[in-house]
Design brief:
25 strands, 12-stranded mixed sheet, about 550 residues, globular, 4-stranded mixed sheet, about 35% helix
């Protein structure tokens, strides 16, 4: 059996000019990055579209497990399936982070015969967006420390700096550091640390900005720390916004690539969904909607994380309304939620499946009842799945008024996604009653508790003493009206990764809050969530190689 990278390398991509022509993008709007990828000037495209708006379809998933779900694979295969049945369609995905590529995942461009290509480029340096975001983040950090060194006219308290440097790699050694050592000439000694680039607020700012003007305004609002008088210090006050925007002027343009079957795809922006808002860029999504009748996008991790933030943050800010939602699940993963060991997931186990099924059913209830959106469950089928197991899942879904479609896109590409495509088209013809899980007018606690109780099914929310102080301070500074970006483990509805299935009656603990004023939301930190991951015992980097001809292997 071929690996994902071997499949991707077996397909000759079409020239990016042909993909652009198929999408309706003029040659003048393209900026080429080689033969098979290009950046797109969104202003040119949106002006030519004259208000056209396609249907927006969100692909999300059950709570992740080591068994895997296949959300990106389903997203790509569904788009190819829609094209197979004659629909005008584009894909809108996030860019992979180098950290997970060299850590656990080993690649993030889909799988099997449902991938975006050039797969190696997308998973590695691509068009340089990640590097530009990291450079902008670290320039702001350098300008802040230099301001303090050069006399500190703003009165920044070095003990209350909130802006950290970043690197796009899993590196636990950099989580907590002490810097500025070696005497006054080398800076002010202080405790510091690094985040992974995709957790940087600049990534969120880039993904939520409509254009370069909006980007620069948002950058200027970024809070980097506080003065001795407890006033926030912004990037604008450091006169940094212009330089940051200059570094990001190309990164804000969506990247055009293609699927293995030649379906146009934007791959742009890459915030994690457990520590950030987990959606691709507004610019890419809006441009795709102006170019096609159907746009298939995804949000990171389960629907309690990326999809919640997609609706409550991205859709709210960008004025987007999804037409339908696809919930990806596997029989294997549901059995894992039901207590079956990973080694036994290939065996029929109706009892474990029945115990794990409530996880899927809760995701369905959230999407259809909390958000009022039509949904379909896509079962990413494995050869070991039995007819009895598939029937049990289908029965549970239909009891909640949701259809099930088998997805065989990994093996068959777009042909394996036609049944799912037909159901998505049907759902997009229905009338939705889209709403948010909370209103902005509530207090910070009101919004946190709405997410915790409506989406996670927590019985209560507890706040540490530090979190209580931060809430009072943020509301006093006028940030209380912002939406909430929950930082929570992806492995459970709760803040405890060991609580699988559909836990309820638990208490969610909020240990801290911080403002992302440029992005326009507040981050609520729960559990042991970290903004700098580490490498696993056997990282994917150990298996990645390149031969004398420059052919890469080991990327999943």
């Amino acid at each position: 059996m071929k690996s994902d990278i071997e499949i991707a390398q077996s397909v000759r991509p079409e020239p990016i000019d042909e993909i652009a022509r198929r999408a309706g993008i003029s040659p003048e709007a393209l900026e080429h990055y080689g033969k098979y990828k290009a950046k797109v000037n969104t202003g040119d495209v949106l002006a030519a579209a004259d208000g056209k708006q396609g249907k927006l379809v969100l692909v999300t998933a059950i709570t992740p497990t080591p068994a895997g779900e296949g959300k990106t694979t389903t997203t790509v295969g569904l788009a190819d399936g829609l094209r197979k049945i004659g629909k005008s369609v584009m894909v809108a995905l996030r860019e992979p982070s180098l950290g997970p590529v060299f850590g656990i995942k080993g690649g993030a461009a889909g799988g099997g015969w449902a991938q975006v290509i050039p797969m190696e480029d997308i998973n590695l340096h691509f068009t340089g967006d990640m590097h530009a975001i990291g450079a902008a983040n670290n320039l702001l950090a350098a300008m802040l420390d230099n301001h303090i060194y050069q006399g500190n006219a703003l009165g920044v308290d070095p003990r209350r700096i909130t802006w950290r440097r970043c690197v796009d790699m899993n590196d636990r050694q950099l989580r907590f550091i002490t810097d500025g050592l070696g005497g006054r000439i080398n800076g002010t000694p202080r405790e510091d640390g690094y985040d992974i680039t995709v957790a940087s607020e600049i990534m969120a700012v880039l993904c939520l900005s409509n254009d370069l003007v909006d980007l620069k305004e948002r950058l200027s609002r970024i809070v980097v720390g506080y003065t001795y008088e407890d006033k926030p210090v912004t990037a604008g006050e450091l006169h940094a916004a212009g330089a940051l925007a200059a570094l990001l002027k190309d990164a804000i343009k969506p990247n055009l690539v293609q699927t293995l079957e030649g379906t146009p795809a934007f791959v742009h922006g890459g915030p994690f969904a457990n520590i950030a808002h987990g959606c691709n860029s507004v610019a890419a999504t809006k441009t795709a909607l102006a170019l096609s009748d159907y746009v298939i996008t995804e949000a990171g991790f389960g629907s309690d994380l990326g999809a919640e933030k997609f609706r409550d943050i991205k859709c709210r800010m960008a004025g987007l309304i999804p037409s339908a939602v696809v919930i990806v699940a596997t029989v294997r993963a549901l059995k894992n939620h039901g207590g079956a060991a990973k080694a036994d997931l290939g065996k029929e186990d109706l009892a474990a499946l029945e115990r794990g099924l409530p996880n899927l059913l809760r995701h369905i209830d959230n999407i259809t009842n909390v958000y009022g959106l039509p949904a379909v469950v896509a079962i990413n089928r494995f050869p070991q799945d039995t007819e009895k197991e598939l029937a049990l899942v289908e029965e549970g879904c239909r009891a909640r008024g949701v259809n099930v479609a088998l997805s065989e896109v990994w093996e068959k590409g777009g042909a394996g996604g036609k049944a799912l495509a037909d159901e998505v088209v049907r759902l997009c013809g229905e009338t939705s009653d889209f709403r948010y899980s909370y209103e902005l007018a509530g207090s910070i606690k009101d919004k946190i508790e709405a997410i915790a109780k409506k989406i996670y099914r927590a019985a209560d929310v507890a706040y540490t003493g530090e979190a209580e102080k931060q809430i009072a301070r943020l509301e006093g500074l006028g940030f209380g009206g912002l939406p909430i970006c929950m930082a929570k483990t992806q492995y459970s509805f709760s803040d405890d990764p060991a609580k699988l299935g559909a836990p309820d009656g638990f208490t969610l603990t909020v240990r801290g809050l911080k403002v992302s004023a440029g992005a326009g939301f507040l981050v609520a930190l729960t559990g042991d969530i970290m903004t700098m991951p580490g490498l696993p015992k056997a990282p994917a980097a150990e298996r990645i190689d390149v031969d004398a001809d420059g052919v890469i292997s080991g990327l999943f």
